[in-house]
Specification:
The protein contains 7 helices and 2 strands. The chain has 141 residues and is mostly helical.
Length: 141
């Protein structure tokens, strides 16, 4: 099975952005596992696009146009407005900690559901969605 890049991978200092683009590329090649399809326009992809103030479908088109991660991020900054280093650090903190002491009760419930469906509910060290992804995609044991 081909997994997308780690959510911790960065482009332009931003976590998750390369993973979102990798998921789009894998989907275009027919190599993205089925469980990734329903939330392609929700969750972190939606959060990332909201932060960048761009439409997900426009990002998909840039991927289809063959632009690199750096070129797509540059386009996002042009289309949605530039981001300061401080804003990018805020995004990274939000993304990396999502699920841990989260103000959105739905996030914690989804994380519990992910852990249960992967038979990882016993793992008390999985506190965030990023933690879960890393273990579920076998980058971390």
């Amino acid at each position: 099975m081909t997994y997308p890049r780690s959510p911790y991978d960065k482009e332009g200092g931003m976590v998750y952005f390369p993973r979102m683009l990798e998921k789009i590329r894998l989907q275009e090649k027919g190599e993205l596992p089925d469980e990734y399809f329903p939330p392609m326009t929700r969750g972190f992809n939606a959060n990332c696009c909201q932060f960048l103030k761009v439409e997900y479908e426009a990002v998909v088109q840039k991927v289809k146009d063959g632009l690199s991660d750096a070129e797509i991020l540059q386009w996002c900054f042009e289309a949605g407005g530039p981001k300061s280093d401080y804003e990018i650090r805020l995004w990274n903190s939000f993304a990396i900690k999502k699920g841990w002491r989260d103000e959105d009760p739905g996030t914690l419930e989804r994380l519990r559901g992910f852990k249960k469906s992967s038979k990882l509910e016993h793992r008390e060290d999985i506190l965030t969605v990023f933690d879960y992804i890393e273990v579920d995609e076998k980058r971390k044991s």
